[in-house]
Amino acid sequence: MSITSTWMITKMECLPRSGGQADVVCACDWTLVAYNKNYSGMVYGSVGFTYAAGDLFIPYESLTENQVIDWVKEALGSEQVTAYEASVAAQIEAQMNPPVVSKPLPWAV
Fold first, then answer.
1. In Å, what is the CA distance from 77 to each residue of 6, 90, 94, 106?
2. What is the pLDDT of residue 108?
3. 89 CB-contact burial (10 Å; exposed 0-12 / middle 13-18 / buried 19+)
4. Fewest CB within 10 A of the end CB: N or C in the chain?
């Protein structure tokens, strides 16, 4: 089963000022979508961030989606990232090979 997964950032919230910096990202919403031909799976969530003066800071306007996705994955931890990726794969597998199916009533056929 060949699955294509994509992590996306759908929203970021900022503190106007924190630790001497402006527009400090404090939370973001993310979505993980996976596809296999006509099947798809999805999981989404939110993660918070804490900035302390002196930490590495990237100005808001210089952030890339890949950078923020890396922050999300780091905040979630590799075990949770793996679990989410397994979850979307399981959703696709369940669509391809349903564990439960509806059958017509034998007396109604």
1. 17, 20, 26, 50
2. 85
3. middle
4. C
